[in-house]
Amino acid sequence: MPHLDFLLFGGLAALAGAIVQGSVGLGVGLVATPIVTMLYPSLMPGAILVIALVLPVATLAQEVRHAELRGLGWAFGGRLVGTPFGVWLVAAVPGRVLSVLIGLVVLAALAVTTWSREVPRNRGTLAAAGVISGTTGTASGIGGPPIALLYQRESGPRVRATLAVFFIAGALLSLTTLAAAGRLPVRQVVAGLALLPFVITGFLVAGPLRRYLDAGRLRTALLIVVGTSAVVLIVRNLV
């Protein structure tokens, strides 16, 4: 059973992340990963991947009809390619260096999509985003930004439901690959399961926020979440 301090600090991080993801479409990994990595590095990335698998199920229970599945096949293909590379990074690259690299990749993607009038969503961009997502998601639990940035101009329900489908498949793939490589200790899975009550509570609390953001404010909120998480990840590991 996880220690009480983990349930307190990790639980609050998971609660905050679930509120963000429940309203924007991503965030539980972005918010919780830096905190859990800093305080409980031995529980990463498995603990975050477990909650990253469960939370999207709650989203789909409400908004599954809005999911855009046509292009996700190419993103899934990219994720298949990127996932083994993420497993290798976990084993080969020091945690701090890896976190800074992931933060820089996210910031670069954010800059490109923010300053461009419109980033095309086609086979090439979806596959490339999938590769990056598979790598960063498996290595750190943060795999949402590359895909989210491609869907940033869609409606709130479309963004959340589409990302939820991708997150479920991606988390399953990452967990399976880590387990097969011997990089998923049981204590990480148990820790993730212990955080689930906080995750479900956060999703329920996010209801009013979803309605507020869906009134034309979702894209701004999404970009803020992605950018802030990357900056925090970089600064924390450099300092």
From TrEMBL:
Top-level taxon of origin: Bacteria
Protein family according to the UniProt entry: Belongs to the 4-toluene sulfonate uptake permease (TSUP) (TC 2.A.102) family.
A Pfam family that the UniProt record links to this protein: TauE
Record bears the keyword Metal-binding: no
Membrane topology summary: Multi-pass membrane protein
GO cellular component annotations of the record: plasma membrane
Chief location bin: membrane
Record's keyword terms, sorted: Cell membrane, Membrane, Transmembrane, Transmembrane helix, Transport
Places the protein is found: Cell membrane
This protein's name: Probable membrane transporter protein
Record flagged with keyword Hydrolase: no
Ranges annotated as spanning the membrane: 38-60, 161-182, 188-209, 221-238
